[in-house]
Amino acid sequence: MTRDDSAEAGLTLVELIIAMMLALLALSAITTVLVLSWTTQRDVDSVNTATNRGQTMGATIERAVRNALEFDVSADGSQLRVRTSLDGSLECQGFFLTDGTARFSQSSATLTDPSTWTPWQQGIARADGADYFTRSGDTVRYAFDVRTDSASVRFLGEAASRSAATGVSAPCW
């Protein structure tokens, strides 16, 4: 009698279980890599967005101060008001930074209560507890953090007025 090898063809239950466990292990590794990649990408995007927002804020502050005829920093260092040499609605510019929010105003008339100014950026925080704005002669220094889901991005800068100070803050304040 001859033996029929066709009955022996295929996988045994043990072989099938081992193959499924190996496939599950490979899929788990791939899933872990994908999840970590997505998380890293989200963090990078968050920091990029914060960097762009902070750079925009810094550039706007520096432009206003460079064109300043007069400027004033509040006693608590949270508010900067600038009377610029620019025309129209850019003549009077105000920056108000508090924990969580930056507000901005531009006008051709008196800058009103800063709590009513247009919300400009979110996620703002003090840089190591320092004042947002400090004045030294004709120079303004600013320092703030922009918070993200992963890490805060710090911005430090300074700008000096290029115009001769007039000592006149009207009509801005």
How would you summarize what this structure contains?
The protein is an alpha+beta fold and 173 residues long. It has one domain. It is 31% helix and 31% strand.
Average of the residue pLDDT scores: 94
Q: What's the tally of helices?
A: 1
Taken together, the total number of domains comes to 1
Biggest beta-sheet profile: 5 strands, antiparallel
Strand order of the largest sheet: 1-2-3-4-5
Radius of gyration: 30 Å
Category by helix and strand content:
alpha+beta
Uncertain runs? none
How far apart the termini lie comes to 111 Å
Query: How much of the polypeptide forms β-strand, as a percent range?
Result: 25-35%
Sequence of secondary-structure elements: HEEEEEEEEE
What does this structure look like?
With 173 residues, this protein is of the alpha+beta class. It has one domain. The protein is 31% helix and 31% strand. Strand 2 and strand 3 form a beta hairpin. The longest helix has 54 residues, at 13-66. The chain starts with 12 loop residues before the first helix and ends in a 13-residue tail after the last strand.
Pick out its properties.
1 helix, 173 residues, alpha+beta, 5-stranded antiparallel sheet, 4-stranded antiparallel sheet, 9 strands
Task: Lay out the secondary structure.
Layout: H1 13-66, E1 68-73, E2 79-84, E3 92-98, E4 101-107, E5 118-122, E6 124-125, E7 133-136, E8 139-146, E9 153-160
Antiparallel strand pairs: 1-2, 2-3, 3-4, 4-5, 6-8, 7-8, 8-9
